[in-house]
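Box 3.1 A note on notation
Throughout this textbook, protein chains are presented in two layers. The first layer is the amino acid sequence; the second is a token string describing backbone geometry. Keep the layers aligned when reading.
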Amino acid sequence: RQTLRPEVLSLTDTLSDLGNLLNRLLGEKVELEITHGRDLGLVKVDVNQFEQVIMNLVVNARDAMPRGGEVRITTRNVRLDADLHRDRAIVFKGDYVVVEVADSGTGISSDKLNKIFEPFYTTKEIGASKGLGLGLSISYGIIGSFGGLLSVENLETGGAAFTITLPALPTQEAAQ
């Protein structure tokens, strides 16, 4: 357990600063592309925990592409005009900042997709340096502690996309 130290952040700056480390984590076979939405809203998160989530998603994407591929991180503002029901979670209508981490791998089989955030559930081999099945469940909890939601879907083009939806700060709160 860590004490959360939330601060007002521009995810554009945070992800740009993290880019070099992410490239090193990905290695030579996987290419990283980061695309930022225009006038991205501000969010209130613990920067270290947020970076931990991004690194976990990127490493998982890398592991899903042993022959190489591409990881794309995109950001955008989203306004929900109605509540969004995702599995057992609800994202209430309002303004959000979305970060999507997508890969060009094979995707996640449908029988595993609904279990992916469960503690100790892993698609990797169990053993040294393989995985304990805690990364995604911890990431899900971290994003939830920020008032957001972490979700996943397979892409029609192949690969999977993990979507982080975080509440955008109202303009007056962001200015403080």
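The first strand starts at residue 7 and ends at 10. Residues 155 and 161 are 7 Å apart (CA to CA).
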